[in-house]
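Retro notes - structure team

What went well: the batch runner handled both jobs without manual restarts.
What didn't: labels got mixed up in the shared folder, which is why I'm recording both outputs here explicitly, each with its sequence directly above its tokens.

Job 1
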Amino acid sequence: MKYFAFLRSVGLCAALVAVSAVLSGCSKSEPARFRLNMLDMVENEVPPSHQQQIADILTAMYGTPDEPFVLPETELDLDLLKMAAGAVASDEQGQETGLFRRHCVHCHGISGDGAGPTAAFMTPYPRDYRQGKFKFKSTERSSKPTRDDLKRILVDGIPGTSMPSFALLPEEQIDALVEYVAYLSMRGETETQLARLLMDLGEDDEGNLEPYPTDPDFLIEEVLYPVVDRWLAAEDEVIAVDPETAPPADRSPQELAESIAKGRDLFYSNRANCASCHGPSGLGDGQLTDFDDWNRSVKEFAESHPDVDVASLGLLPVQTIKPRNLRQGIYRGGRRPIDLYRRIHAGINGVPMPGVGPSSPGLEGTLSPEEIWNLVDYVRAMPEEALSQPPKLPPALERERL
């Protein structure tokens, strides 16, 4: 019974596509559809026939925007997904559905690709969930976020961006949106896995690629588990804070000032190297020509495929990434000391911001936990610091300014 819905969906997918095409001629609008990640399709040279097979497999494993479906191995809550999915509506009891389209789709798009109708007008662009990369979280750099991490972003929003707070929504609706974000991300990562699987497919006697395997056990073991396992591991990969190294809450003004001074020295040192990006005055003007992973992938794709119109693939124009202006006191990942500690410890996934803590538990980082706390204190103090006497920079940074 576990795979019955999966097998049934694979077998009926072609029929569903045909029925949808017929029905669309009789309705005012076509049903919502997930859009394939065409950058992956072109980059992995997936032919149209195999693109359709990927779409069929994804429909079997995840359903559609109107009718989500998940395999039990994902441990996703289907009831919450149904509340978030579909068209905007409410029943006689006032139970709302279609929450993602009501609140999120205009920025993040039906497919969660960050290319909704208003996305092109935003800096930075809304998050593309399909790569499974999340910037602001409590876990190690390459780890997935916990559900609490995603919930916190929804409740607090992201200061300095177009992402608002949804704190006024009922908790169940927030939980439904959190679950749907994880669902879109898992689906997108599964799509990428399927595109890369093309390299392992053989050819028939006529030199044509073999079709994708539709055996449920194979797809679950080789495609789904590598995606799901990392999401299930997130709770165990939260960056722990040793209370022995954390500053006490009752520090004296003198102790805090000493920590700020140490953090200031680290900020402009070659070890932490913060000023190389955030600028000699922390104004975010140290470098202005780099890219985050989402924009870099589009840039590199356009350079390697000059004959392809990237806009026709649903891709937005490339944006450079701007380091944070720390003098403003606006911290997108949260302003609590623990938030800043984790940003400095692990860096920010998907962007050039590196981490200075250990890359794995038990290893030694560039900075000690105590030194990271010193940096946290200095970063929090920067909005109050006078700029009339710029600090003396390391020689390498001084040469860059000449």
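Job 2
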Amino acid sequence: MTMADATQSSPKTDPAALNQDALRALKSGDAQSARAYLSAAIQAEPATVSLHLNLAAACRALNDLEAAQAALDAALALDPRNFMALLMRATILERQGKGRLAGSAYGVALTQCPPADRLDPATRQAAERARAAFAAYQNDLADHLRQTLADEAGPSREDNGRLEAFVDRLTGRRRIFHQQPAQFTYPGLPAIEFYDRCVFPWLETLEAASNDIIGEFLQAMEDEAAAAGFAPYVEYPDGVPLDQWAELNHSLRWSAFHLYKDGAPVEANARRCPRTMAVLSAMPQPHTKSRSPAAMFSVLAPKTRIPPHTGVSNTRLVTHLPLVVPEGCGFRVGSSTRPWRVGEAFVFDDTIEHEAWNTSDTWRAVLIFDVWSPFIPPREQEKIVEVMEAMDAFHGASPGSDL
């Protein structure tokens, strides 16, 4: 007589006892009896999620995948975020040969996965397998979508970059970063990591002066009197809760030779760099009392990393003109990483998380300055300046930072 027969001849009505009998039956390999026990338990107590999950396991062991799916549907109707039910649904789809649906279902399940230290070893292993299956699904989807892009008639470089970023975000290959201005957020401005060159026709003027700017920088580096103009880029007073800057605070490992600071030229430095100052005067920089423009030669020492951080205000963007760039230097804004190339400038939104590094054995140098966001028309620029200056006048203090 099977366990199922025993259930019929001596019926139990306690769902907990029936569930224990079912678990013993499953352990012994008698999935048919386990199914009978669990069906009886669910009839007595239909709102218990664990009974539906165990019934799904019994049906899966019997290769009755449709019944297993029905049991999981019942469990998820009671608890839509149940990780084990979501995970088992993905495995059922995989066994049914529905690979793409299974891959997507693994991704849904992983959104509800508890921390690893709260999982037993078997579940932790199942979760790792789910991650691998989901990653394979994302890669297959990305390859398929990229092939679709490759088959289309050529978009512009800017459009193609956006399309590729869209695909990467859609398939989980690229994290989405948002603007996080440390102080001033102007509404309605887009979050663009690196801007397309065509937005800034003045970049050609800047790059045409690269050799002159590099020459003035190198002369400042080599002149003992000028060397005194290099100061730590990070200079926060003690007690400020900015832990990420502890290593570089008041350190010349990241130094700046300021050409404009707090809205005014640094005369001693500016006199040494007339060509650079002339070029900067042609750039669309903000002009706000005691705040901007800001411009400097930024020098990063060997084996030094600037930690991830965000800038002050999204009303302005940051321009980099690389001057001296050894191998092993890089720069990341959001999910986009690129090298510096001497004489090739770029513009980025520094209110999106960014970082830089120099793993070489020599220093790296970049000219840095701010420009207005091209999405703010001139009249609004004037009003923003008025608001900022009125705010500073209200507080009666010199802000010492940029707009």
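One thing worth noting from job 2: The chain has two domains: 3-139, 197-395.
We'll revisit the folder naming next retro.
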